[in-house]
Design goal:
Blueprint lengths: L10 E4 L14 E8 H5 L6 E6 L3 E7 L3 E5 L3 H18 L2 H6 L1 H7 L2 H10 L12 H21 L2 H24 L1
Antiparallel strand pairs: 1-2, 1-5, 2-3, 3-4
Length: 180
């Protein structure tokens, strides 16, 4: 049986070149190991890892050969990064902050901001019931398409009024469909 190279709390660096099949993943950054597939779900896979990327959060699955050990047993660093990310997400999910930084939100598409705008529309979980990336992508496009003119003008009140109208139309349509 293969020996596991990294363990929960190990501080690692993600290599620059992840290869073409992972070009959409973050690279050349610091992370802390959350665990291997085996650690989290059982089985025998000790070469695929979930990481907590600095300033980004948890991401799965990085391969063992894509990681370089910086220092073992840095759960303190993981806690520090989680707290910093939580504070950043709290700020970026505040509607006053979102509408006072509208262009920045549109340029960077912060998950916390997009999710907060989605909640205004009645979207509970941008990832859907099964955590699918394509669902998040579609919901984000929908939310940002609707929110763009309001974000550009910093018009929080206009956005909230639009959301009320959209939710009413949605409720009326659902009622109509249930009556058929």
């Amino acid at each position: 049986m293969a020996k596991q190279k990294f363990h929960k709390g190990d501080h690692v660096r993600v290599v620059k070149n992840l290869g073409p099949h992972m070009s959409h993943f973050s690279s050349d950054c610091e992370a802390v190991v959350i665990g291997s597939y085996k650690d989290q779900f059982g089985g025998s896979d000790t070469k695929s890892y979930t990481l907590f990327l600095k300033d980004q959060g948890e991401v799965s699955w990085y391969d063992e050969h894509q990681l370089i050990l910086i220092q073992k047993k840095r759960l303190d660093l993981l806690k520090q990064w989680e707290s910093a990310l939580e504070a950043d997400n709290e700020e970026k999910s505040d509607l006053d902050w979102i509408f006072s930084h509208g262009e920045d939100v549109l340029d960077n598409k912060y998950d916390a901001s997009v999710s907060a705008l989605g909640k205004c529309l009645g979207i509970g979980d941008m990832w859907g019931s099964r955590g699918e990336g394509i669902v998040y992508f579609c919901n984000s496009l929908y939310v940002l398409l609707l929110a763009t003119p309001y974000l550009k003008k910093g018009d929080k009140k206009g956005w909230l009024n639009r959301c009320v109208r959209i939710k009413k139309i949605k409720a009326d349509k659902l009622k109509e469909l249930n009556e058929v």
